[in-house]
Amino acid sequence: MDMTAPGRHADNDSEYAWRQWTEKLRDTVERHRLWNDGDRIVIAVSGGPDSMLLLHAIAALTGHRPGSGQIIIAHVHHGFRPQESDEEARFVEREAERLGIRVAMKRVDAPGWAAEHKMNAQAAARQLRYDFLKEVAAREQAPIIALAHHADDQAETVLMRLLRGTGSTGLSGMAWKREADGFSFVRPLLGVRKAELLEWCRLRGIAYVTDSSNAKTDYLRNRVRLDVMPQLEQENPGLVASLCRTADVLREENDWIEEQARQLFQCVVKTVKDGEDVPMESSPPDGVVLDRRALLQAHVALQRRLIKLILNYLTREAEQADFDTVEALRNAAIREQPSTWKTDAVPGVEFRREYDRLLWLRQPIGQAKNGPDMLDLTIDRTYESGCLPIPSNGSTLHWVIECDSGSSITQEAAHQAASGRRRVPSGQAEALFDAEQLCWPLRVRYRRDGDRMRILGLNGSKKVQDMFVDAKIAPSLRGTVPIVADANGQILWVPGVRRSDAALVGPSTDRVLRLELEGGAHIPAQQQRSCSTQPNRMM
């Protein structure tokens, strides 16, 4: 670490120039609405020339008086260069005391934290630093966190992202103001060149320290700064200005696309709670669901942005989702052939495509909340009618025993049996049984591994799992479907799929049991009927 304390030239001309420069900076603050008069500001100060000039500039803009408390210094000792970092911390502490500004300091083990979380050391340091800045801002009740990034940093950032590959969001670079976690992160110096900052430090006699690691080419940013940028500037001396201008234009266009995507998000995305699709205001959700057809109607740019918004809504890890990840999810969603599959390409989020239903889940919800064996309800023939609530999906199972052999429902069933037309109801939302042929009481439960059911016309039985697949019942919904079985465990009906070949209604039937499932996300609305409004209808 080197410390620079240039002599100050406090002549009238330099004082006038400083006032002009700070007024220009004030215009920047007002134009980008970085903060309001009187706002408390936490300034991230490493001790380098950029952050030290920012500290002095904000002190001038706010009319700082020692001990006023409007500005607070925050400094993080990252643990990379123990001896140098100790000296930098002492330097910041001395300067804070000299200026009469409170300072908050924290020592972290960025290398150890990076190894523990399997991430890049610089990314780990940034995460720990930002966490501390927010911690200080919360404690000090300061809505503003000021960062010392400048125009050269912006140009390097845009170029680095271009080298790695990115979209308009990445090429937008760093924002003048970014809202996150209840705080405003502001960058007042984003339009100022590094050389200008150094010159002001010299003219104002502002002391600073130099990080020795900035001269090493171990990191990509340093290589871009020290090797790539100088060569490119030989071809275009205005390179930094061009890259910064490009970032500004793309940021404005990106903001517009983002707003369009947010409006689309509010219109077409629902949350998933306990296996059900519910309005967005429900919180916290298990995940979100999107109708694939709505995604297909959107422009490809909005498709990508919508997927990114969904990921950001569900997990912080989505910030690391790159273009390839988002594009892979988009292609999986728009592919024409019907399919059901899942992937966990983004940590903490499972993506499922279930035909035209697209789900992003924080955790699997394929079984009822209390597990597949927790539903155990009884239908007793002692009662001629009743209803049972199904907790997994909010549906209700109604039953009624029709005792009159001359009733329309029995006559219709007998006519169908005699004519050979649809002897067995479709099994979608309603099923009919000869009540006298059933083994009572009936039980209602969720599916179990190995479940099989005998089907009319099939020599033998079929796995319930295979029936779900044939009926295109979404995997995340299969564990919520109630199954009706008799006292011996024989499965009679899987609502929304099929009924069995047991207890068929025929001409000699005297008592008919009619079962109907009202609700249930796996049954299309047009196939559902109400027991109370259509008592004699048979599917």
Automatic annotation (TrEMBL):
Q: Which Pfam families match?
A: ATP_bind_3 (PF01171), TilS (PF09179), TilS_C (PF11734)
What is the name of this protein? Answer: tRNA(Ile)-lysidine synthase
Output the Gene3D superfamilies linked to this UniProt entry: 1.20.59.20, HUPs
Name the InterPro entries for this protein. Lysidine-tRNA-synth_C (IPR012796), Rossmann-like_a/b/a_fold (IPR014729), TilS/TtcA_N (IPR011063), tRNA_Ile_lys_synt (IPR012094), tRNA_Ile_lys_synt_N (IPR012795), tRNA_Ile_lys_synt_subst-bd (IPR015262)
Q: Under the GO molecular function aspect, what terms does this record hold?
A: ATP binding; tRNA(Ile)-lysidine synthase activity
Source domain of life: Bacteria
Its job: Ligates lysine onto the cytidine present at position 34 of the AUA codon-specific tRNA(Ile) that contains the anticodon CAU, in an ATP-dependent manner. Cytidine is converted to lysidine, thus changing the amino acid specificity of the tRNA from methionine to isoleucine.
Major localization class: cytoplasm
Q: What is its EC number?
A: 6.3.4.19
GO CC annotations on file: cytoplasm
Reactions mediated catalytically: cytidine(34) in tRNA(Ile2) + L-lysine + ATP = lysidine(34) in tRNA(Ile2) + AMP + diphosphate + H(+)
Question: Which residues take part in binding ATP?
Answer: 46-51
User: Which controlled-vocabulary keywords does the entry list?
Assistant: ATP-binding, Cytoplasm, Ligase, Nucleotide-binding, tRNA processing
**UniProt domain comment:** The N-terminal region contains the highly conserved SGGXDS motif, predicted to be a P-loop motif involved in ATP binding.
What gene is it encoded by? Answer: tilS
Work out whether the entry's keyword set contains Oxidoreductase.
no
GO BP annotations of the record are: tRNA modification
The record's subcellular location field reads:
Cytoplasm
Q: Where is the Lysidine-tRNA(Ile) synthetase C-terminal domain?
A: 442-515
Q: Which organism is it from?
A: Paenibacillus dendritiformis C454
- Which family does the UniProt entry place this protein in? Belongs to the tRNA(Ile)-lysidine synthase family.
